Amino acid sequence: MGRHFGRRRFLTAAAVAVAGAAVSFLPNPFAAGGEKRNMDKKRDENVFFWKGVALGSGAELRLFGVDDRQAADWVNKVLAEVARLEKMFSLYREDSLISRLNRDGYLTSPPADSLELLSLCRDIHALTEGAFDSTVQALWKLYADYFAARPDAETPPENSVKETLKRVGFGKVSFDDREIRFAEKGMGLSLNGIAQGYVTDKVVALLKANGVPAALVDMGEIRGFDTNGRRMWNVGIRNPDDEEGVLANITVKDKAFATSGGYGTVMDKAGRLTHLFDPRTGVSTPRYKSMSVMADDAAVADALSTAFSVMDLPLIRSVAESRRLKVRLAMPDNIVD
């Protein structure tokens, strides 16, 4: 298999105070259980760092202007919320709700969070004319199984892709408060293109509800907030070919930012085919080196960075203008638009 470069590592971040002093967070090491440091002596502000795992990948949390006891309490609440959501949406857990749904083809009495997320999936599917489709799991399985047995092959046979596409299409998923059900046997959901953003949004809502004054949350996608409106978040889009290189820097204030890259996971030994499938065609060939979206919510930024990765530029521009989004894309030659 080719190189793996997790999409979460496409972003670096720093906080900029109103006075203009910068506090750099990456690549500083964080203690696994959390670490509080006085990072800005001029303002004498305490910053609490936590680093761990959410939905199978690295997660980070930075709380500003907090004391030890407050931070410990808030982090415990965040961990409980992440654990609750992982039980629904994680494909890494055989006992999760999504794993049960994929195994059985239906799920009775689905929780409100799952219905909320599926409703958002439906909206983004329509907005992107089918480019975002959470039923892409069947394609993932086809490619993964094919190249596991034939690592030097070029692409799966066209007839296999066409047959698999019969089990792809969000219109074949019905859901209400009674049940979620697939219309075709062998279908499967993957929320990996939106769940990290959704979890980030839920953590932000939890922190705000508990009176946290400011935080930078990364549960797979980044979202920062400051109730005093002082901070801006400088987000660097890393070069997939160089973990220390940055393609561009973006300033975010009370927004979410997500980046998808075809180089996050490659399917074949040659590294030509990626995990970013076009659910309309079954094609797995990267159009762009990376795709970044800034939006009010991390779930929307997450889903659209995924969808835009397989869309033509005119449709990307149309969607971005209609939703007042900021988009930055890197072409294969590293030119950032």
UniProtKB/TrEMBL annotation:
Presence of the UniProt keyword Phosphoprotein in the record: no
Record keywords: FAD, Flavoprotein, Lipoprotein, Magnesium, Metal-binding, Signal, Transferase
PROSITE patterns, alphabetized: TAT
Pfam families: ApbE (PF02424)
EC class: transferase
Span of the signal peptide: 1-31
Keyword set includes Ribonucleoprotein: no
EC number: 2.7.1.180
Alphabetical list of InterPro entries matching this protein: ApbE, ApbE-like_sf, TAT_signal
Domain of life: Bacteria
Cofactor: Mg(2+)
Gene Ontology MF terms in the entry: metal ion binding; transferase activity
Reaction it catalyzes: L-threonyl-[protein] + FAD = FMN-L-threonyl-[protein] + AMP + H(+)
SUPFAM superfamilies found in the cross-reference section: ApbE-like
PANTHER family recorded: FAD:PROTEIN FMN TRANSFERASE, THIAMINE BIOSYNTHESIS LIPOPROTEIN APBE
UniProt-recorded name of the protein: FAD:protein FMN transferase
Gene: apbE_1
